[in-house]
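EI: anyone free to look at a 419-residue chain?
SC: sure, send it
EI:
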Amino acid sequence: MTDGTQDLALPPDVERELDGVAPCEIAVGVLTYNNATTVSAVAAVVRAGLERHFASASTVLINADAGSGDGTPDLLVAAGLPLVRVRHATPFAQRLAVPFHGVPGRGAALRLTFAVARRLGARGLVLLEADVTSAADEWLERLLRPVLEQKADLVVPVYARHRYDGTITNLVLAPLVRALFGRRLHQPLAGAGAFSARLLDRLLADPGWPASGHHQTDLWIEGTASADAFAVWEAWLGPRRAESRTRTSDLPTMVAQAVGGLFGVMSRYDDLWLEVRGSEPVPVAGVPVTPSGEPAALDVDRMVGGFRRGLRDLSALWEHILAPETLGDVLSLDTASPARFGFPDELWARVVYDFALGHHYNVVYRDHLLRSFVPLYLGRTAAFVVATRDRDVGAVESHLDAVGAAFELHKGYLVERWR
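SC: here you go
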């Protein structure tokens, strides 16, 4: 064990679970909530991945459960590994309406998992999602080997996606994380990941751990790792397919939770990003994987129609959020022909920054602010489809890089108004 891990405070029930569990080199964390239909397959992947890639390493499986009622934790016994089962507190509202990431109280689950991993002296922790049915044994190797052998501290997955999958990430979260934290991560809210002991110790010692229920923990981890010069990596994995009966699929709710979570990190932890200038790519493990199947077809006419309805119904609200020049530029966008609709990168960066500022200064009720962002997001997504649907993969990547560069270039606009 590293210095200080013996002093980690754990609940009495967790201490009882740890009785007789030997120290380990690798910890595997699986956060669960009513995942009985999928978690056995994930357990099988864990066992296969460890046997194939880390056969000589001692391992413990850690299950942090949010109060499943379907026997999910019992099914992880099938992995045939030493198992520590813990249950964490969950906000009542999140049990009524499960967040986009599928685990009520994810922040509390992560903290408990990290603490158990360090109590056991693990050199590295790999985290997998309990409802992702496409996980493969090589995922453990790609995520964990950079931590164990190449001094990586945080490894974030990059899943194989079609160009129009994950546009909230591509057009909002990734460019904003790039500008804020100075790291070019493709998928900042990827769910899985790997962590070094050094980073876990740093995070567990931080008194500013995000409060449960605010969808901020993963982004705070990335911001903290970047600000403190930890080695942040990415790992190319295969396609990500989740089978969940609990995750929300409502677009306004997903936008409000994901974007609102990042805005919340910006407000509470502005010391992580206000002084950051520029950005850099991160090392990558593995090679890109081509997604299989046909890409989803997005209806540009429908998305532009949603943007038009926003212009009609929300302009009065946007007056309280968007700067006058920004609002004027948004209102002047030509929606007459959806097939030629455009939304300039510089304007989009100002829109997102104005919404972040409005959220920070609480200019309107925050849930209303976040939900009023959706028509603007639909408009920007429509413009992305128009600009890239006849282009090759390289051109799409260049387009998204230009979006990130615009956020980076205009970060001063945000910083000047934040202080």
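EI: The chain is about 50% helix and 10% strand.
SC: 👍
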